Amino acid sequence: MASSTVVTKNGEAFWNKMPGARHRANLNSMYDAWLLALEEAVGPQGWSPVFGVTTNGDRRVLQIVDWVGGAGAKPSITGYIGPSGIVPTAGAAVDIRGTQGLKGDQGDKGNTGNHGWSPQIRTTIDGERVVQELYDWTGGQGSKPATGYIGVSGLVSNIADASNIRGGKGDTGDTGPANELTIGTVESGATPSVTITGESPQQVLNFVLEKGDTGNTAWTPVYTAVADGERSILRIDDWTGGQGTKPATGYLGPLGVVANVGDALDIRGAPGSGSVSSVNEIDPDGSGNVALGIADIPGLEDALDNAGQVKTVAGKGPDGSGNVALVKGDVGLDNVDNTSDANKPVSSATLAALGNKIDAAEKGAALGVAPLDASGHVPAINLPSYVDDVLEYANFGALPGAGETGKIYVTLNDNKTWRWGGSAYVEISASPGSTD
Description:
Layout: E1 8-9, E2 12-13, H1 21-41, E3 48-56, E4 59-68, E5 79-81, E6 86-87, E7 118-126, E8 129-138, E9 148-150, E10 155-156, E11 180-189, E12 193-199, E13 202-210, E14 220-228, E15 231-240, E16 250-253, E17 256-258, H2 300-306, H3 348-355, E18 390-393, E19 408-411, E20 416-420, E21 425-427
Parallel strand pairs: 11-13, 18-19
Antiparallel strand pairs: 1-2, 3-4, 4-5, 5-6, 7-8, 8-9, 9-10, 12-13, 14-15, 15-16, 16-17, 19-20, 20-21
């Protein structure tokens, strides 16, 4: 390991400001190794590691959990901080808690101390800078120490005073392919979350959705009475007024909603019973039936005698045989004749309307008219090729992976125009004297 060179302030190692003698001694001894590991961990093109403190038995070690702030491909290396760089296993990592020192002389009893606390550090972004945030303490006793950011000489409260651990900006890499996100798993869980799996340019979004309250409350059925043979049943056509998923429709059965009409409940009930005392003063026979003749119903005999007699038609009365002789003028058909359909003339209005029509053979034909699709638009096949030669996209990353020659591509975010050069897009420079 490199020789220990500890940053000091006023002649005192800055880690000596931390509580716990064993903690301070160990952090001071590993400071150069930690800085060397950070320098080696900064990936290509400005990538900076994101650390997490993890447990390895009784030890506490720093683990690289991610990389942030860089350009180009994200470094794939992960691991733990060892004595001289990144190591693959937690067992080979440096224990930031250190070993227990020799027992010293007992000092005066002081106030209850804040001992045994271990920092939890993560990398965070401050504009173009990458700094380390001490966001929590674990494993200690007594009052938890203050949180903050890692500065040049120790813990600082303002992010602006924190040390920038981001390296210099690397060379700009080649533009990668456009990323394609697809939906993967959608599961329910106690805490909602979204994770991305896979490697660019093909990655998968996986969702965990928080389970909501039980739905399908306060729904009211909409009934219709329908016949099923001699039975009368209630059909549930819809549900109204509820929340959540609408229940299924069907029929009202003895214990609830049923899907089959044969299982529905007959709402007509059992046939009724009773007896008739008389009808038009005619008493029933021994079986309870009443036999009525024509004379027993007032007015029926006269109505039947006059039934079927015609009085007048179009103001003309019948002859002695009861027939009415009519001519076409009697019923407003003076202009009607027996002209055949093939010889019937066409009205002037109809003839004028036909003059404004086009022949069906002219649709889609050369020198004819273009047809319309279901949306009322002219299909692309009937348009000249130059109509869709200008294509618009949100930004450069949204352009197709491979363009087409003869087409112009416009990126709307910067209003630039491009053409496909065969292997890459080439910007089309504005003509001299032109304006946007």
